[in-house]
Sequence to fold (459 residues):
Amino acid sequence: MAKAAKTTFRCAECGWTTLKWVGRCGECQAWGTVEEVGAAAPGGIAPAKVSSPARPIAEIDVETAHAVPSGLDELDRVLGGGLVPGGVLLLAGEPGVGKSTLLLEVAALCADSAPVLYVTGEESAGQVRLRAERLGALAPKLYLAAETSIASLISHVDDVAPRLLIVDSVQTMSAPDVPGVPGGVTQVREVAGALIRLAKERGIATVLVGHVTKDGSIAGPRMLEHLVDVVLQFEGDRHSRLRMLRSVKNRYGPTDEIGCFELTDSGIIGLPDPSGLFLTRRNEPVPGTCVTVTVEGRRPLIAEVQALVAPTALPQPRRATSGLDHARVAMLMAVLERRAQLKIGASDVYASTVGGVRLQEPSVDLALALALASSHADLALPRGLVALGEVGLAGDVRAVSGVQRRLIEAQRLGFTTALVPEYSEEPVEGIEAVGVADLGEALRIALPARRRQRGTRDD
Fold:
């Protein structure tokens, strides 16, 4: 007798297979993603009719692959020109960050020239209509539907024939005759597959809104990110007006570009020059503040770092950070105490950024170290000074990328002096680049009064 075909189980996230069902994948350690595949069918795959014959690559028509501007410049910057007909874009972000507001603004701008269909599965049509009225997005060619069934969504597409389709969100849609609850791995995979086929067959630019998990990753199977053409991450602190749009994957443009937006009561506004949000306007310099230039994607941004070193009577001094890496701040404190003889270990230390921006780049190290030393000495840094460079454990200032591009941005905003690592590129007119080899040299240049005061006490 022939042996019966064995049933196998496969993880929907990573493809790991096993002969028996388990609750947790043995490869990626994800819970509830192992599903039954069934017996493998014997024999090979028979050839089938092709949808279109293969042609030489030089004869392929590229007109349909050209991007169409969306009308929102910052979004077009991230996408590499605009929305591509037939392209599928996945937009993810935390709840309340402004995903629906951004897409409603884009839908209204695109509806000026072509029909746009906005399908919401999370809100009623009346709720979306009220938001559109507040944003001034009541375009005549913008069609709105509240559906949670992918079959009903396809019927709406047949009736409207849109050039742009927005689905908010893919986790709320369900496919008939497919097991699982909406938002589950099976349902999300089936819904996304149906929407991608619809977009490719009819040449409809499609935007899918995706939920994120508590660790910031996109909810659903990882396969979803592989299937779509573009993956965008919408970020921002809900207590700040600033929002950043990052490109995680883009088959039609760069993946190292960001877009900056300001979320207001009347809608969302693109910020072609967002550096002003990250600086504090003051008449006189204040101890404990230093300006640096960070690079987000291809865009240099001026940002201000603030630090406060205060004496404390507590046996365990407090450490608090906002917008900065806590471990990085602790490391710089240790370097300052060991290499620059700054006794700040027994003091309360608070460090933050201005405007809600998060600075994770190592080039911020030198500015943060100067801000800590400035607050400890209660001396303000010179006016018009910026600092950039990575600080090592030995106290050395290491080189960073794109120094010239950063200096051009600093000079444009009126800064006259920059403390940088060994600078060998062409000088930038209007700003003096002072190369420093280690942290001690940077402190002697930026805080000369600190050296005189310490020498007086030592005498």
Summary: Confidence is low (pLDDT under 50) at residues 454-459. Residues 185-202 form the longest helix (18 residues). The chain has three domains: 7-39, 66-272, 277-458.
